[in-house]
Design goal:
Strand content of chain A: 25-35%
CATH topology of the largest domain in chain A: FAD/NAD(P)-binding domain
Structural class of chain A: alpha/beta
Distance between the termini of chain A: 49 Å
Low-confidence stretches of chain A: none
CATH superfamily of chain B: 2Fe-2S iron-sulphur cluster binding domain, sarcosine oxidase, alpha subunit, N-terminal domain
Distance between the termini of chain B: 36 Å
Order of helices and strands of chain A: EHEEHEHEHEEHEEEEHEEEEHEEEHHH
Mean pLDDT of chain B: 92
Order of helices and strands of chain B: EEHEEEEEE
Number of helices of chain B: 1
Largest sheet of chain B: 5 strands, mixed
Strand content of chain B: 25-35%
Oligomer: heterodimer
Helix content of chain A: 25-40%
Bound molecules: flavin-adenine dinucleotide, FE2/S2 (inorganic) cluster
Strand order of the largest sheet of chain B: 2-1-7-5-6
Largest sheet of chain A: 8 strands, mixed
Number of domains of chain A: 3
Mean pLDDT of chain A: 95
Number of domains of chain B: 1
Structural class of chain B: mainly beta
Radius of gyration of chain A: 21 Å
CATH superfamily of the largest domain in chain A: FAD/NAD(P)-binding domain
Shape of chain B: globular
CATH class of the largest domain in chain A: Alpha Beta
Radius of gyration of chain B: 13 Å
Shape of chain A: globular
Helix content of chain B: under 10%
CATH architecture of the largest domain in chain A: 3-Layer(bba) Sandwich
Low-confidence stretches of chain B: none
CATH class of chain B: Alpha Beta
Number of strands of chain A: 18
Chain lengths: ~375, ~100
């Protein structure tokens, strides 16, 4: 067995890799023990938005958390790009979310106003009618009712981001072990033993960042981390001339000119396949918003599973039973990358504890707490 | 650049970047471009590097070209037609307006 690491991170997706960068940068010896392509890997199938609009409506801490992530992104991006030489296409020049009809528009305004209250005005947005929207993006159809817009939003190429994080964490001295699916974990005399089919690893701390496998792994360490899959299908078109000024939902244009069209929300269990009806629906909605896209060819489509918690809010949990054991599960792991490499790494290293983070403990799902809240 | 083995086949006229040119009937747009030496057939969207038909069987997508106003057509999979308007693309294909 040999080396006893300071920290083992189980899972090298966006969450695990960002955290590994943060912890290693604080001088700890880190091992990232990762699975393989047979796992469901949200980090390799997502939409790539750094998105603040509407996040945390009804959960003030999450609204503030997301606003903080967006604020830290520019510095975080600059450092990661300069230390790795990888340009992962980060652009934070605003985002539109289109509303086809008035019902969507009214619901969106309420959500946006709630997020603004939660963040005590830090989150700023505009609700645009069709005239103003068409002034800004002439290709939008006259049938679209309007859109919400926020300056905080942006986007990245999530695959390049993941590659940059992996390169950075290894430069910082992390040991990366791919194709090492963790079978079991157990506490042993104040440390933790992690078993894969071919190896064993030991560390003083363990952080579970294994996406949809977190629930199973956490159970062995006495933590209850409820996560379930929500499928999203998304479409990729051929490259076309640039026409979108910034990120938008449901159409995002990459820096190379490809259009990415999202984004279904389907509760279908552990099934990441694509279906013709959803592909058709997504394409039709995009063409309703942008009629000039009707002749554009799709070149591929895929399904990927979101790592969803019961309330859609991230979980940052430390075990009360076994000090040194942590679990992190979140949707919006692209958006939150800047925090995972920063304040969340501080929290795991016990350097400085952001007051907000306690709000994300999985204790909120304990039956006794739930019934108290009702 | 290339020669056809069968000589004397029937010629038709297509428009290449707006200019009428004679080409043998029955061949693909990509084959016509090669025969005319009209290379490169496009410049790539990001780095503007030159491209030409490569696989000639519809799998590599190197030969994308605008045909009758529709961008990004695989030239090796489309047969030349009399009066066809073929335009080489410089960068990403244009969207129909
Ligand atoms: C369709 C879709 C669209 C999305 N769009 C956005 C977006 O626009 N913006 C945004 O912010 N977020 C978006 N997300 C969410 C984002 O992709 C996820 O929150 C993020 O990728 C989660 O990262 P993760 O590292 O926790 O999980 P994963 O990417 O699932 O990584 C988990 C890692 O753990 C490994 N693993 C699993 N089990 C084990 C085991 N037993 N032992 C060892 N390793 C293991 C896996 O191999 C994998 O490498 C989207 C997600 C989906 C599915
Ligand atoms: S030359 Fe390869 S697809 Fe046309």
């Amino acid at each position: 067995m040999g080396t006893v690491y300071d920290t083992i991170i189980v899972g090298g997706g966006l969450v695990g890799a960002a955290l590994a960068c943060g912890i290693a940068a604080r001088g700890r010896l880190v091992a990232v023990v990762d699975g393989d392509d047979r796992d469901f890997r949200a980090s390799r199938g997502n939409f790539g938005l750094v998105w603040v609009q509407g996040k945390g409506a009804g959960f003030p801490a999450y609204a503030r958390w997301t606003a903080m992530a967006a604020k830290y992104w520019p510095d975080f991006e600059c450092e990661l790009r300069e230390t790795t030489g990888i340009d992962f296409g980060f652009r934070q020049n605003g985002g539109y979310d289109f509303c086809l009809d008035q019902v969507e528009w009214v619901a969106r305004s309420e959500e946006m106003s709630l997020v603004q209250q939660h963040t005590r005005g830090e989150f700023e947005y505009e609700m645009l009618d069709n005239t103003e929207l068409k002034r800004r993006i002439p290709q939008v159809s006259g049938d679209v009712f309007g859109a919400s817009y926020s300056d905080h939003d942006g986007h990245v190429n999530p695959l390049y981001l993941l590659r940059a994080l992996h390169q950075r964490m290894q430069k910082l001295g992390c040991r990366y072990y791919p194709n090492q699916r963790v079978i079991s974990t157990r506490p042993k005399n104040g440390s933790f033993i992690v078993k894969t089919s071919s190896d064993r690893y030991q560390a003083k701390q363990i952080v579970l960042c294994a996406g949809l496998d977190n629930q199973r792994l956490a159970h062995e360490l006495g933590m209850h981390i409820p996560v379930h899959p929500i499928r999203g299908q998304l479409l990729i078109t051929e490259r076309v001339e640039s026409f979108l000024p910034c990120a938008s939902l449901p159409v995002r244009q990459t820096m190379e000119g490809t259009l990415q069209i999202g984004n279904s929300h389907e509760n279908v269990g552990f099934d990441d396949s694509t279906t013709l009806d959803v592909i058709t629906r997504l394409a039709a909605r995009a063409v309703r918003i942008f009629p000039h896209l009707s002749g554009v060819r799709l070149v591929r489509a895929w399904g990927a599973l979101r790592v969803m918690t019961p309330d859609g809010v991230p979980i940052y949990h430390r075990s009360a039973h076994y000090p040194g054991a942590y679990a992190i599960s979140c949707h919006s792991g692209v958006t939150l990358t800047s925090l995972h490499a920063g304040v969340v790494a501080d929290w795991v290293c016990d350097d400085a504890i952001d007051a907000l983070i306690a709000e994300f403990s999985a204790e909120r799902f304990d039956v006794s707490n739930t019934s108290l809240r009702v | 650049m290339f020669r056809t083995l069968a000589s004397g086949s029937e010629k038709i006229e297509i428009y290449l970047d707006g200019k009428p040119v004679p080409v043998p009937a029955g061949i693909s747009v990509a084959a016509a471009m090669l025969q005319l030496g009209a290379l490169p057939t496009r410049l790539t969207p990001v780095k503007r590097s030159p491209r030409a038909p490569f696989c000639m069987m519809g799998v590599c997508f190197e030969c994308l070209i605008e045909i009758d106003g529709l961008a990004n057509q695989p030239a090796c999979q489309v047969e030349v037609q009399s009066g066809m308007r073929v335009r080489r693309q410089c960068g990403a294909g244009e969207l129909a307006s």
